[in-house]
Design a protein that fits this description.
The complex is a heterodimer. By secondary structure, chain A is mainly alpha-helical. Chain A is built from 9 helices and no strands. In chain A, α2 runs antiparallel to α5 and α8 packs across α9. The radius of gyration of chain A is 17 Å and the shape is globular. The chains are: A mainly alpha, B mainly alpha. At the A-B interface, α4, α5, α6, α7 and α9 of A face α1 and α3 of B.
């Protein structure tokens, strides 16, 4: 349980984004290589404990699970990007499923656990992608270089990063008025889930999921363009 | 507030099913003097016409399998 008490994440505790330019994602991968097996055993039991706590109505447990999933996804992303050729892109769906296996194992999860894990994964993926887009934005605009990022993200056009940041900002507003639909955007857009998977996680029909998705896209585009 | 925001979703979703020439009349009827709601939904319908592939591609730096 100790790992989740790391100070990341004052920002995460408030449900906000991590603004601090803390350790580089690619640095985290090496730690992973060294002690992957023991970490896996402990994170797996941590996740199981937290899922049980969420099930029992512990409101802090969801945030703790999020931090755990965030750390796991970040480590996975870092080791993928450091092992493969430059220019490699992340595959959120594959990452989320791999994180899932590492956190919970391959037993068939209870429905509610599945929902919690996917929600946490989608929020964690969002934070990872937004953190990097922010870092690149800062660097382009004369910010400090803490270190040269060794990563596969540099091929993405700056305009695409800026649009990602704009979407994210609009999504925060959207979530205030339409929390379920905002959740759906995170699952679909940031975690790469299909309409079918999203409908299972949120417990809605596929046609409702499609309606929500159309509404969310229109809402977000309208918000971004009316700025 | 929750009711209002749900109405935005419901009216927008229903309006999309109405043929374009009849939409203004539909909104008039269903919004029943709620100008705020009508303006919101009209703006969403306009945004819907320009959606293209918005958010249909994965975020920068990522890809689907």
């Amino acid at each position: 349980m100790k790992r989740i008490e790391q100070p990341y994440h004052a920002a995460a505790a408030h449900g906000g984004l991590c603004l601090a330019d803390h350790e580089n994602i690619s640095g985290a991968g090496q730690v992973d290589e060294l002690c992957s097996a023991s970490l896996q055993a402990s994170t797996m039991s941590d996740a199981t404990v937290m899922l049980a706590a969420i099930g029992a109505g512990d409101s802090k447990a969801a945030e703790q699970l999020l931090v755990l999933v965030y750390d796991e996804l970040r480590r996975l992303a870092a080791s993928k990007l450091s092992r493969e050729a430059p220019g490699q892109t992340l595959q959120p769906t594959a990452l989320v499923h791999e994180a899932w296996l590492r956190l919970v194992g391959d037993k068939t999860p209870a429905f509610n656990d599945r929902e919690h894990i996917f929600r946490a994964s989608a929020e964690a993926m969002r934070r990872i992608l937004i953190d990097r887009a922010r870092r690149k934005h800062t660097q382009r605009h004369g910010g400090e270089y803490h270190r040269v990022d060794f990563e596969g993200f540099d091929l993405a056009a700056p305009a695409a990063d800026d649009q990602l940041l704009a979407v994210n900002e609009a999504l925060d507003k959207f979530a205030i008025e339409h929390p379920i639909q905002a959740e759906l955007v995170k699952l679909r857009y940031f975690a790469g889930l299909t309409n079918e998977e999203v409908s299972q996680v949120l417990g809605i029909s596929v046609s409702t999921a499609k309606n929500y998705w159309t509404f969310a896209r229109a809402w977000l585009l309208n918000e971004i363009q009316s700025q | 507030m929750k009711g209002d925001t749900d109405r935005e979703l419901v009216v927008f979703t229903e309006a999309l099913k109405v043929p374009i020439p009849e939409r203004a009349g539909y909104l008039e009827l269903v919004c029943a003097g709620d100008e705020n709601l009508r303006h919101k939904v009209e703006a969403l319908l306009k945004a819907h016409d320009r959606l293209g592939r918005f958010l249909e591609e994965p975020p920068p730096g990522t890809s689907m399998e």
